[in-house]
Design brief:
By secondary structure, this protein is mainly β. 0% of the residues lie in helices and 50% in strands. It is globular.
């Protein structure tokens, strides 16, 4: 039976991204990067709420052990906020980090935590409003823990999707400008990566667009968004250049995905509406979707440990 794709949030986002499933509240948090909103959807009640941040916000991750506290990006800062998940505004508690002083226009993009709760996120050369105007080489992939920022990869184009496989000690990463999905060895205890190499190349499979956000399932396969091609693809990184499945969405710019639901067998997918020559948007573009019937489970999203 084919997977079922359901629109769960009709509100069209300028650039939906970075979905994070919170098991404690049984809700999915995500952002509208260009609209400057953080968002929450509760599947059990189908309630959707959002709060305005006022700056480029590229991820929202709950703080482990703290009620109503989250780490978000604000431009090229990382901040600790308080949000009840209901109101339309937040309290900024403090700025935790700021990077890339040499590049005033830089902003953070996709961010996730490794299994230890260490935050990983990278920068890009400008807010992702017009992708053609983002200068190559200005991005850096960082990790953050215990007040320390560590730079891992420099000279990036568009720092994007991240995923971790603790069992295999692998870290998967996307620089959208490269056209490849790359694999690194990772020492999660030390927070170091090494031996980067591509394991999937977009143009070898006749796929148009670029690689964006991604997630990993319990079998070790990766699910990566490919805007503006309407597609989310499933690949096996242990077998280089292996495309396992392609899912077609009503929305052109599929941006990211995360497994959620009580059994982690529902895939929540964000989409966007970044202007691209030749694209005409419909109400399906920018909506948020749920995919069921995949017969696979995901790994739990990891909250940030401060």
């Amino acid at each position: 039976m084919a997977p079922k794709i359901e629109k769960v949030v009709d509100v069209p986002l300028d650039l939906g991204e970075s979905p994070h499933w919170d098991a404690k509240t049984q809700s999915v948090y995500f952002v509208d990067i260009n609209g400057h909103y953080i968002n929450r959807f509760v599947p059990a009640t189908r309630k959707y709420t959002r709060a305005y941040i006022g700056l480029n916000v590229s991820f929202i991750i709950p703080v482990e052990g703290q009620k109503d506290q989250f780490v978000i990006s604000r431009g090229k800062q990382i901040a600790l906020i308080s949000w009840d998940g209901e109101s339309d505004s937040v309290s900024i508690l403090k700025t935790l980090y700021e990077v890339d002083e040499q590049y005033p226009e830089n902003v953070f993009n996709d961010g996730k935590c490794d299994p230890s709760g260490r935050l990983w996120t990278g920068t890009i050369g400008a807010p992702p409003v017009d992708l053609d105007k983002i200068e190559n080489g200005r991005g850096t992939l960082y990790s953050f823990q215990n007040g320390k920022a560590t730079a891992h990869v420099t000279g990036l184009g568009i720092s994007n999707g991240l995923a971790f496989n603790a069992a295999l000690k692998k870290f998967y990463y996307i620089d959208s400008r490269k056209g490849t999905l790359d694999e690194y060895d990772i020492d999660i205890t030390k927070g170091t990566i090494s031996n980067g190499k591509p394991v999937f190349t977009l143009n070898k499979h006749g796929l148009e667009g670029f690689l964006d956000g991604m997630t990993i399932d319990a079998d070790g396969n990766l699910w990566a968004a490919v805007p503006p091609s309407y597609k989310l693809i499933k690949i096996d990184p242990r077998r280089p250049e292996t495309l396992l499945q392609t899912i077609e969405f009503p929305a052109q710019e599929v941006t990211a995905a995360v497994f959620g639901g009580p059994n982690l067998d529902e895939l929540y997918v964000t989409t966007g509406r970044i202007p691209v020559p030749g694209l005409t948007f419909t109400p399906d573009d920018g909506a948020t979707y749920r995919v069921t019937g995949l017969n696979v489970k995901g790994l739990p999203s990891v909250n940030v440990k401060l």
